[in-house]
Structure formats: structure tokens, C-alpha cells
Design brief:
about 350 residues; alpha/beta; Udp-n-acetylmuramoylalanyl-d-glutamate--2,6- Diaminopimelate Ligase, Chain: A, domain 1; UDP N-Acetylglucosamine Acyltransferase, domain 1; 10-stranded parallel beta sheet; about 20% helix
Length: about 350
Amino acid sequence: MQLRDIVNHLQQLGVEVKLIGSDTADIQQVAGLDRANAQQISFLNDKKYLSSLEKTEAGAVILAPIYQDACKVPMLVVNNPYYVYALVAQLLNPIKNSYQRHLDASIDDSACLADEVTVMAQAVIQAHVTIGKGSVIGCGAVIEESATIGQNCRIGANVVIRHECVIGDNVIIEAGAVIGGDGFGWANNKGKWVKIPQIGRVVIGDSVSIGNNVCIDRGAIEDTIIEDNCIIDNMVHIAHNVKIGQGSAIAGQTGFAGSTTLGKGCTVAGQVGFAGHITIADNSHFLAKAGVTHSIKNAGAYSGFPAIPVLEWQKNNIRARQLDKMAKQIKALQKQVETFVFKDKDE
């Protein structure tokens, strides 16, 4: 693919791009600045890699206007290099779809599969399932009765989508994820646990990405909801009746207890824990290992356990590291006070 073809593709997607240098380079793949060859395109998104830019042998580089004078090879000058790199990487690495239904797959006669749906070996499609055009169902995946999957979805190997759950368009669910498993609903009577049937669904919006081994529990009565354009990393647990707001990003090993509502545009770092029945404001951001025990009413960055505003948490951390020094100072002051007190009594 020539560089001009890449530029034309970006322009069709509405990207403002300025090409400087020859547009005839044959670009076959993406690569890092320090490893790229003449048939690869790279990008610069951080000034600390300027030394690599000056030495690169890439066929072209994607970069911001402020760095163009440092580049000696053809370049695509854009406002958001990392975003444009993602678009170019997608173009050069398209998702393969064979549009076949493997003979070892089990597809119920009542299931409704649109054109160009791929079903791989040992996948199971149960009764009254609906799958949209261009979707791919991976090896060993199980799509239970009356579940709905939209168009151009990619369902990974051994994924389980439980009965009646709804998946939107352009959704990626990586291997081993379980969508719509029973929520942790139990009632206790004199020490005996009695299971509460979970009769809600999981409803996932459009353009959502769900990582490997994620578990999203179905609602107890109402639905568990993941809104459009959310990205969820590996091994995240989302309990029953949780709602994840549009455009939120959640890193690995995060856990949400039941009936928590995360606002729109939130970011959650790894191993953050959310207590149940709390509400988090839009555009809230949580640092790694934060413990969110209460509702967050104001947008901002939070950390610690219990989670507090980051500036306050940082001050507390600095003071905590000084506790030993402060304790010694207090002990010394106590001795001074005692000395003065006893001296006054003697006089």
C-alpha cells in the first residue's frame, strides 16, 4: 500500500492530515521508530523519543506539527498522532473473517444468523439467538438462548454469553469472558444461604471492548448496563445491576460491587475496588488500588483507601513518610516540657 493510499483513507475518515515528502513509499506494516524499515510506518507522540526520530529509517512517521522540523523522512502531520496511528494500524492489520460456519459448530435451527457471519469450530449457538452481519463467533464460544449480538462483533474463543443478553454493534469480547452469569444474590435464613434467581440481563452498547476473562453479571431484577464506547481490560468483575457510563475506561483486576453506577468518561486504573450501591460522577478518575467506599459527587482524580482527592492523598502520603521523624520530635518536645515543669516546681 502506498503512502498516498493511507492518506486518502484517513481523509475519508475525516482526519485532517498534511503529507510532507514523497507519497510513493510502499507501506506494509507499523513499527517502532528505532526498528522501522522503509516499508513500515511509525509515530511520535512524546518528545522523549526525539532522538529515535532523528535516526529512524521508517518509510514514514506520524507526528504532531511541533516535531515536523526534526523529521528527515516522509511524514503525516496530524493533531493526534496516537489516534491516527491506531487508524493506520487497523488499516494495515484488518480483522480476518472467513464467512464460514464450521461443520463442528452447533447451530440451532431457530437461530437467526445474518449474512457473512463466521462461526468457528465447536461454538454453540442455541435457540432463538440473533447475530448481525459480519460478526465472528470464536472456537468453543457458547451463545445461549435468545441472546442478541449486533453487527461486526468479534466474540473470542470460549466466551459465554448467557441467555437473553444483548450485545450491540462493533463489540469485541476477548477469550474466556462470561457475559450474563448469575449475580451474587443470596438470602440468609438462620445461617442457611438461599439463592435468589437473577432475572435481569446484561445489555452492552455499541463499540465496546471487553478483555480476556472479564465477568459481567446479569441483573438481579433490572439489567446490568455497559454503555457505548467503553473499554474494559482483562479480569475485571462487574456485579449485578452495575451501570458503566459511556466512554469509560477500566483497567485490569478492577471490581464493582452490585448496583454501583459509574459516570460517563471515567477512567479507572488497575485493582480499584468499588463498594456497592454508590454513584460516581462523570469524568472521575481513579488511581491504581483506590478503594471507593462512598459516592463521588464531583469530577476529579481520586486515590487511596478510602478514596480521596489525589492532592489530599499525596499530602497525606508525604506526612505518613515523616511519621517516625515527627514521633521523635514530639518525644523530644515532651522531655523539654517535663524538664521545664519539674524545674518550675523545684523553684
